[in-house]
Recover the amino acids of this structure.
């Protein structure tokens, strides 16, 4: 029995989406339809193959099972054929599926011995619960218990548990150890593959407003929405979006900004003011990440004084709201005074009674 690659039959990669599979199937089915190729046996067989491949890959559950076994399908297939060739119930004692409940509840299936079973027959047995032309009959739990005991004591025939063990999978059938009369051990869940890492660098403005990024991981491209308020080290988990359904974790880095320093959700910046504005007071425009606002500078404001602008910082990701913006005043003195300016400054400063700021009190 030959392992058949359904992806190759449809001409799509293993990472193909359901829409891509559907599109490929429609084209191939149209091209090889018997009505368009009367008397062409090759086209007829190709049409059957395309339909069979689509029946598997277009069904999410069947596709998962098919992808799980992969090329190991051939070993499972051969084991099923040995049971069928012997005319035995594959779920009975000594059969390749001894100790496993057949799909559909307390039902077992018999294989007929009229000729070799093809891959499609075995596939329908594995996924649907019965081979082509198979007959079914009811059976209670005691029948399966007896079958399991008989298989353990007879020492004949590989179990499905053994086949899965060879392929590195954990099973839940008769091959698993259990105390006599006790409950069957539960199957261990398959280890989830490690998440893939995808870096994303943002500007401070993008972190403030939120952004979109087109990322590529192992050849698969996808768009991710970066939420507002992220910071360097923030991790965004995208479940099942990577190749073969793996999780992707986007690690964010926010680039340094020329104007703002960030402290969590708070921002800090300097605000240059003139000597006139600092001495006499003024309303000074301040640029924030939200837009421009007017900040009232009181008369006599010293350089280094800090004003707190509530809610003008970064958005908070967890509890909503926003941090604050801290504005530190930097007084810029006039330079290159001419003679008239120097004379005026001297006269003004002679009138000001300013104590020595360096004096120790």
């Amino acid at each position: 029995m030959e392992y058949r690659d359904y992806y190759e039959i449809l001409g799509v990669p293993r990472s193909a989406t359901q829409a891509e599979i559907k599109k490929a199937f429609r084209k191939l089915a149209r091209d090889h339809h018997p009505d368009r190729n009367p008397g062409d046996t090759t086209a007829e067989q190709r049409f059957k193959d395309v339909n069979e491949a689509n029946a598997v890959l277009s069904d999410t559950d069947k596709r998962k099972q098919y992808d799980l076994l992969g090329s190991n399908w051939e070993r499972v297939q051969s084991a099923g054929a040995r049971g069928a060739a012997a005319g035995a119930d594959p779920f009975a004692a000594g059969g390749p599926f001894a100790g496993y409940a057949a799909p559909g509840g307390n039902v077992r299936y018999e294989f007929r011995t009229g000729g070799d079973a093809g891959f499609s027959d075995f596939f329908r047995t594995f996924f649907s619960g019965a081979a082509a032309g198979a007959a079914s009959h009811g059976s209670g739990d005691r029948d399966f218990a007896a079958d399991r005991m008989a298989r353990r004591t007879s020492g004949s025939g590989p179990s499905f548990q053994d086949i899965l063990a060879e392929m590195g999978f954990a099973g839940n059938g008769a091959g698993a150890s259990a105390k006599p009369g006790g409950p069957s051990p539960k199957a261990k869940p398959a280890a989830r593959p490690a998440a893939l890492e995808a870096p994303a660098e943002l500007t401070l403005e993008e972190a403030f407003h939120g952004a979109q990024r087109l990322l590529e991981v192992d050849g698969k491209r996808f768009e991710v929405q970066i939420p507002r308020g992220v910071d360097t080290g923030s991790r965004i988990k995208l479940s099942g979006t990577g190749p073969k359904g793996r999780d992707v974790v986007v690690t964010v880095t926010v680039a340094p900004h020329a104007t703002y320093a960030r402290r969590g959700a708070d921002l800090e910046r300097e605000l240059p003011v003139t000597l006139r504005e600092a001495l006499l007071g003024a309303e000074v425009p301040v640029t924030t990440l939200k837009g421009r606002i007017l900040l009232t500078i009181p008369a006599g404001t010293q350089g280094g004084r800090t004003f707190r602008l509530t809610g003008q910082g970064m958005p908070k990701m967890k509890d909503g709201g926003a941090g604050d913006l801290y504005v530190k005043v930097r007084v810029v003195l006039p330079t290159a005074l001419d003679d008239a300016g120097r004379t005026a400054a001297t006269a003004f400063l002679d009138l000001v009674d300013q104590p020595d700021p360096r004096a120790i009190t």
